[in-house]
Amino acid sequence: MYNKGIRVSLRLAEKARRELNRMGVSEDRLKIRREGDSIIIPVTEFPDGHDEIEWEECFAEFEARRGFVSDYRKLLEFDPAKMSILPSSYDIIGKKILVKIPAELRKEERNIGEALLEVHRFADSVFRDDGVSGAHRTRNVELIAGRGGTETWVTEYGFRFRLDVRRTFYSPRLAVERKRVSSTVRPDEHVLDMFAGVGPFTIFVAAKAYRGKVMAFDINPYAVSYLRENAVINGMTNIDAHMKDSTLLDFGPDFDRVIMNLPRGSPSFVDKALSMLSEGGVIDYYELVDDISVNSRAEELGNKIVHARVEAVRRVKSYSASSGIYHFLIRKTAPRSRSRA
Predict the structure, then answer these.
(1) CB 333: neighbour CB atoms within 10 A?
(2) Cα–Cα–Cα angle for 261, 262, 268, rounded to 5 degrees
(3) Could you tell me if 246 and 219 are in contact, meaning their C-beta atoms sit under 8 angstroms apart?
(4) pLDDT, tens only, 156-175
(5) Does domain 72-149 have CATH number 2.160.20.80?
(6) Which of 58, 116, 127, 328 qualifies as a FRET site for 336, CA 20 to 30 Å off?
(7) Between residues 67 and 229, the one the model is more confident about
(8) Quick one: angle between helices 221-233 and 200-208, nearest 10?
(9) Where is the SAM-dependent methyltransferase TRM5/TYW2-type domain (predicted)?
(10) d(CA 61, CA 40)
(11) Which of 3.40.190.10, 3.30.1490.100, 3.40.50.300, 3.40.50.150 is the CATH number of 166-332?
(12) Among 62, 66, 67, 70, CA closest to 43
């Protein structure tokens, strides 16, 4: 079962376990997980803070203890046809659960929501997720169980984000990717985040580029408002956030890195991003691609861009059975000088 956890070294394991029990956040229905020289303790929610024990907040798969139902579908008794189309995955964003429900199950959505709340007792609401739409990339959600309210808090590797699941877009499935990308950032980098949302990439990167600066843009006014608030919450003073359409950006080649996390709309922005990138700089570019055509897409992208090359391609997460979100690392190269006769 995918759940929140606290990673701590083996030598501090017992002390951490007692402290989490004292805080009342231990998830006793799941088993503690061992990973090398550390353990991951499942929790119902991330604790507000601690001073004495060095630990890391994360998400991980845990094994359920005997007698605990970890799959909400086991709590439902529908006919076989309906059972076969019950959603097997869903997003957990803070205390909100977002689940896509087939039209055939709309009459059963309250029962589905209640079953999800029974399994995920830290959550307070379940919403039917009808997808993302519009220039502001907002989710169409409808409350089906719980107390309601679309604002929540999310914690990723020690950073805290406030957001609204209806008015802003946020994907918990990119947490590991944000950490991975930020680990490649130099302290003095000047970074542009073209589609920043509520700021998860922005803040991860700003923490690493502490001698540099991150300029962040988004067209959604709610997202920019949360981004600015999240920058303050996380103590980031090197972030400059603006509400602006990225098609209107017009900087010179001043940036060492450009982040383009708009998987279904980024292709038309690549040339603009390259024009704002300094020589040797990189673009962390994301695109939704069919798995079978990813190599040809990388070749196509490489052929279209000028004075740049695709250095690496990696699959970040699945989107469907045959497609995924891919990360393309694009590096700007120096223009070739003409040889003299």
Answers:
(1) 12
(2) 115
(3) yes
(4) 888 999 999 999 999 888 88
(5) no
(6) 328
(7) 229
(8) 40
(9) 90-334
(10) 10
(11) 3.40.50.150
(12) 62
Length of the chain equals: 341
Number of H helices, E strands in the chain: 8, 17
Q: Which two tokens stand for residue 334?
A: 């120096």
Domains of the chain, by residue range, sit at 2-61, 72-149, 166-332
Q: What 3-state class would DSSP assign to 216?
A: strand
Residue type, 247: T
Q: Are 33 and 27 in contact (CB under 8 A)?
A: no
pLDDT tens by residue, 227-252: 999 999 999 999 999 999 998 999 99
β-partners of residue 85 are: none
Residue position matching structure tokens 């376990």: 17
Q: Are strands 213-218 and 190-193 parallel, antiparallel or unpaired?
A: parallel
Q: Residues 15-23: contacts with CB within 8 Å, 24+ apart? A: 15/53, 16/41, 16/53, 16/55, 17/41, 19/50, 19/52, 19/53, 20/47, 23/47
Q: Tell me how far apart the alpha carbons of residues 42 and 7 are, in angstroms, rounded to a whole number.
A: 9
Q: How far is CA 184 from CA 80, 259, 312, in A?
A: 49, 13, 14
The C-alpha atoms of residue 60 and residue 175 are separated, in whole angstroms, by 12
DSSP string, 52-96: SS--EEEEEE-PBPTT----GGGG----HHHHTTS-S--EEETTE
Nearest Cα residue to 226 out of 174, 286, 163? 163
